[in-house]
Amino acid sequence: MTNTTIPDTTGLPLLLPVPRAAKILGISRAAAYRLAASGELPSRRLGGRIYIVTAALLAMVEGDT
Question: Among 20, 12, 18, 10, which Cα is nearest to 40's?
Answer without folding.
Answer: 18
